[in-house]
Amino acid sequence: MALTDFDLALFGGSGDLAMRKLLPALYNRERCRDIPSTARIICIGRHEWSREAFLTEVEKNAKPHIASGNFSEAAWNAFCARINYVALDAMNPASYQALVDAMRQETTGINRVFYLATPPSLFATVCHNLAACGLATPNSRVVLEKPLGRDLASAKQINEEVGRVFAESQIFRIDHYLGKETVQNLLALRFGNVLFEPLWRREWISDVQITIAEELGVGNRLDYYDTAGALRDMLQNHLLQLLCIVAMEPPVAATPDAVRDEKLKVLRSLKRFTPHMLVQNVVRGQYRSGYVDGVAVPGYRKEPGANPGSRTETFVAVKAEIETWRWAGVPFYLRTGKRMADQLAEIVVRFKSIPHSIFAQPNSSFQPNSLIIRLQPDEGLQLNLMAKTPGDGMRLRPVELELDFRETFKQPRMEAYERLLLDVLRGQLTLFMRSDELEAAWEWVEPILNYWEQEGIEPMPYTSGTWGPAAASALIGRDGLQWREESLPEEL
């Protein structure tokens, strides 16, 4: 679908997210000629820079994040020609006049998009100030970056305040994991093929594991991260959204509300935590010093500027259960952490073991079939089966059927923010959270936060470069299961 003309106002336009992700994503769409010739990008920041000074910052901080194979001097010059810069105090209504002057007043056929790459504490203020200066029109859209609140009450407040200015159909709550190619292919795998649907249920699936692991520490995000932690930063949004796509029922169509209705049903079906379940089914961890890729790294409490007594979690593992006919009794194990043994994001759907071996091998020697959906670093699908080894006799061993998207599809692939920005500009809401989705996710997560706070739960230490605290292995081990990296046969 071709884009119509637009003015994109990027609050936080001089920030890290804009420079690393948003501006490079928009440049890539420029290079592919997706952006209308008269569309404009207005970057907004607090620095009193001229346009030329800001473009120098873009050259220094955004350009290095463009892959060398994607760079074109002509496309870059055309892209920079679209960019304007406005110095603005987001808290001061009077300073919005500079933005009014920078945006086109004739809005016929022009979409206005306000991207708030700012702290959530500014969301309501910015939206009300946009309304006060007349910029929040019916053809406007607002994009909200995470974190969308710190708890249920703050999430509801954000929804209510932003909802006073913009209709729900104008609000795009972004989760960049939903823009990844493999997440799109998970939808295609489930609802574009008949192969797995009869097996996609409790009768045949043993468990589902969803992992987002990072080798990096907190880096320059310590100020934010120390007030958020892994549960707020990753599990409440990315991991729960992936769980929803795995577990949702087939929607009646691929329309925004049809898809989001089914995701909401999953969130509302998550089994609520009792005090006993919080002790047994949740692991909180924090990395200590160790080695990652052979390089010594400090512990979280020894990072520059860190609080030596910080209880912020850098790792969390949770056992979730979905109380529906399809999924009753199937555990969903979610985990995420920093300074882990590897960088990966994957979904592992493990099927049940064969009921009886007809071969001269015990059942225990048969690795259960599994479907692995890799989101990063390499996107692809892997199906693990048992097959006969060559030669005399009938001896079976695990084999892998693998689909590497880069090898199968040779055409260039869009990064997550490219796809999501295009969807915003087209007004396509399917990959964005609705307000009731956001609140349902917080309703399920909040008891964990309350329990940690009320009981003063200390995070369990784990060595950097490992797969997290031993308690995470015990969490899944109590069900007679293992995390995928722990269950791989030695010969693999």
From TrEMBL:
Positions of the catalytic residues: 238
Protein name: Glucose-6-phosphate 1-dehydrogenase
Species name: Noviherbaspirillum autotrophicum
Family classification: Belongs to the glucose-6-phosphate dehydrogenase family.
Keywords: Carbohydrate metabolism, Glucose metabolism, NADP, Oxidoreductase
Pathway as given in its UniProt record: Carbohydrate degradation; pentose phosphate pathway; D-ribulose 5-phosphate from D-glucose 6-phosphate (oxidative stage): step 1/3
UniProt binding sites for NADP(+): 46, 146
Gene (name only): zwf
A GO MF label: NADP binding
Enzyme category, top tier: oxidoreductase
Function: Catalyzes the oxidation of glucose 6-phosphate to 6-phosphogluconolactone.
Top-level taxon of the source organism: Bacteria
Keyword match Secreted: no
